[in-house]
């Protein structure tokens, strides 16, 4: 489709949000849609077919190219690099590709993807979750609703959680005297603005690759502020590490473990964790709590498992998986093809950007029976049950991506949400009263207000 006229006033796609656009394109054009290049935006193919997604993702799994956050890549690779910088200097797992990315990823994988390694942070995350429960308790009004901005509270929890894992110390996000201009709140606002601004630059028509627009300059300034803030927290953590050399290898934070491998990687990875681990995890938590609140029978079943203290967390994990199927924080996955494909009767050449609409796929009846219903049992039932998740195509649902370019922080995010959700249902009966929340799609899906949660003491 030649897109320009469609998006103009009076056009069929004018002034609709990203979620509506995804659904409308499927309804009009079917399982494969090509949107031609527009201004500085490359052409992109949207794919709504799980089997086709699997073909491409499996064949692009050596050193896959995932084009995302182009403006952030530009900032790190060009805007901030001086003429004296090495050409082989890494900039991050999001912005790097090829051998440079492969070396970086191979070095950090053992630290960040080993379940046994991540489980070592369980007690620290439980301490954060306990403190957050007490904070929520103190923030309730006479109707057991949270005073203030609930999404901001979830951001404070997620930043505090990722801080203890990445840096090994508490960032004091729950300090009652925390000012709006404090480094903690400034970083949270920076992260939010990064996703919003990158959505404007990277996903919408713009001429910033040719002309330095006001939005471009604002975004570069935001990236710079984020970089300075993460350096501030990393420096504090390094000072603590120097003063506390007695920790065993098991007790070391991610930053210290990576310092033992490669100092450059350590700085970059710690910085990226503080950014990527805030809005994504907080919105996942909000969405999961909402689904638990409107499905009281599932919440009670989860509570019984948690309160039993028998160590089994199968239903807990099933609840989180089902929440990420219905309300994922990321709408899909991306690849740039490195070879030619024949997909659904269409020829896709090399060097084409493909977007896999996993959020759309995961809500299709043909993949998940009763897709709009919150049914954690589908992840636990046996193969003879029509609801059994294994009957769905493996590429219909992919909240953390696929293969060697999948989310490096998956294990950490899962542990954070498991720990906090357990503490919540152990202490509160979570209810919802009022209209449904809005979900705003930018670079990630934002779970927006009104936040009609009610937290009743058990």
Automatic annotation (TrEMBL):
Pfam families: p450. Its cofactor is heme. Gene3D superfamilies: Cytochrome P450. It comes from the Eukaryota. Heme binds at residue 407. Signal peptide: none annotated. InterPro entries: CYP11_CYP27_families, Cyt_P450, Cyt_P450_CS, Cyt_P450_E_grp-I, Cyt_P450_sf. Keywords: Heme, Iron, Metal-binding, Monooxygenase, Oxidoreductase. GO terms for molecular function: heme binding; iron ion binding; monooxygenase activity; oxidoreductase activity, acting on paired donors, with incorporation or reduction of molecular oxygen. Belongs to the cytochrome P450 family. This is Cytochrome P450. The gene is CYP333B1.
């Amino acid at each position: 489709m030649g897109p320009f006229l469609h998006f103009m006033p009076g056009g069929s796609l004018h002034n609709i949000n990203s979620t509506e656009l995804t659904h409308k394109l499927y309804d009009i054009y079917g399982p494969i849609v090509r949107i031609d290049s527009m201004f500085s935006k490359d052409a992109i193919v949207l794919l709504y077919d799980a089997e086709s997604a699997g073909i491409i993702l499996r064949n692009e799994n050596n050193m896959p190219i995932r084009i995302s956050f182009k403006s952030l890549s530009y900032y790190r690779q060009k805007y901030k690099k001086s003429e004296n910088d090495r050409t082989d200097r890494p900039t991050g797992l999001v912005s790097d590709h090829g051998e440079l990315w492969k070396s970086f990823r191979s070095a950090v994988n053992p630290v960040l993807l080993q379940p046994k390694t991540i489980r070592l942070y369980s007690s620290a995350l439980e301490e954060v979750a306990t403190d957050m429960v007490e904070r929520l308790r103190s923030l309730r009004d006479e109707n057991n609703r949270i005073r203030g901005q609930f999404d901001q509270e979830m951001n404070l929890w997620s930043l505090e959680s990722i801080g203890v894992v990445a840096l090994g110390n508490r960032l004091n996000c729950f300090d009652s005297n925390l000012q709006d201009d404090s480094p903690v709140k400034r970083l949270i606002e920076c992260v939010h603005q990064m996703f919003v601004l990158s959505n404007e630059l990277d996903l919408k028509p713009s001429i910033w690759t040719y002309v330095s627009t006001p939005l471009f300059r604002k975004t570069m300034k935001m990236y710079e502020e984020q970089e300075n803030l993460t350096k501030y927290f990393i420096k504090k953590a390094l000072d603590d590490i120097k003063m506390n050399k007695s920790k065993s290898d098991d007790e070391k934070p991610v930053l210290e473990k990576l310092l033992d491998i490669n100092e450059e990687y350590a700085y970059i990875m710690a910085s990226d964790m503080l950014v990527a681990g805030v809005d994504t995890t907080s919105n996942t938590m909000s969405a999961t709590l909402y689904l638990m609140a409107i499905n009281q029978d599932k919440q009670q079943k989860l509570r019984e498992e948690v309160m039993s203290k028998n160590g089994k967390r199968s239903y807990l994990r099933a609840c989180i998986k089902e929440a990420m199927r219905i309300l994922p924080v990321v709408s899909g996955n991306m690849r740039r093809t490195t070879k030619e494909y024949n997909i659904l009767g269409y020829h896709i050449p090399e060097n084409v950007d493909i977007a896999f609409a996993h959020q759309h796929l995961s809500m299709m009846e043909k993949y998940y029976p009763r897709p709009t219903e919150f049914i954690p049992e589908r992840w636990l039932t046996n193969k003879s049950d029509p609801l059994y998740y294994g009957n769905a195509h493996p590429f219909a649902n992919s909240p953390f991506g696929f293969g060697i370019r999948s989310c490096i922080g998956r294990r950490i995010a899962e542990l954070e949400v498991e720990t906090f959700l357990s503490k919540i249902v152990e202490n509160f009966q979570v209810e919802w009263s009022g209209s449904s929340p809005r979900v705003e799609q930018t670079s990630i899906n934002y779970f927006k207000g009104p936040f009609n949660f009610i937290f009743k003491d058990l």
